[in-house]
Amino acid sequence: MDQAFAAVKLQNMYRSFRHRRMLADTIIMELWGHAIDFARLNISTTFFFQCINERSSNTRWTRIGFNASIVGRGVSENDEAQILAFQHWIEAIDPRHRYGHYLRLYYNRWCASNAGQPFFYWMDLGAGKEIDLPECSRSMLHEQSVKYLGPLERNQYEYTVSEGKVIHKQSGHYLHTTRGPQGAKWIFVVSTSGRLYVGKKEKGRFHHSSFLAGGATIAAGSLVAEHGILKSISGCSGHYRPTNESIERFLFFLGDHGVNLKGVQIDRVTPVIAC
What we know:
- It is a single chain.
- It is built from ten helices and seven strands.
- Among the domains are: 98-144, no CATH class; 151-267, no CATH class.
- It is 42% helix and 14% strand.
- A seven-stranded mixed sheet has the order 2-1-4-3-5-6-7.
């Protein structure tokens, strides 16, 4: 009896240790992500003038390498991966992730200025810091900061498919998008490792790019579900510009997980505006 009790006690202690270790590893990944963001901000701003006498092709390639590592994250995991549409790269590489649709207005002004400064330095500290465009004021731009999820936060948006129904992985609740405000739009992405993430869109704050922090996907769009049962699927994503092939991949993903697609409204039209 004492041996059995000791064995159970030891197993519980091991599970507790393993859980704490996994949590600690996840927190370290989150902090590491913040450190990388800080490094990117430094390279995009003050680093430029710290190295003003040493600017070379190596310096420029360092900055390019940092930027490319963001939008290309996950590509190596899947041959069918889709990266962010080019016009939204600027949002992903902005350390503050200001909404790309508006940030690009300032980018266009910078292109026309020939300022000789990196865009984000020009924008926040340099010659362009006082520019306030009528199409999008500075205050509006800073308010429209898109949330980019870290590993811990991302878990809260992960869903699985069980017995043909879409279920929140952590809580076990069925996906039900028709609750809440009228006209709310629910968006999804499938990561290059095959994980499904779903959340409610908030313009200028939460977009398809939020789920994977600007990383690559194999499918993206919007959906409607009632009590875990899919009612409609759309290939609408201004950030990833999914193709009909990517929507087909998502449908195959669902069918492979037991979802009955008969009666599900499927919109394969890919819009050309941000959505």
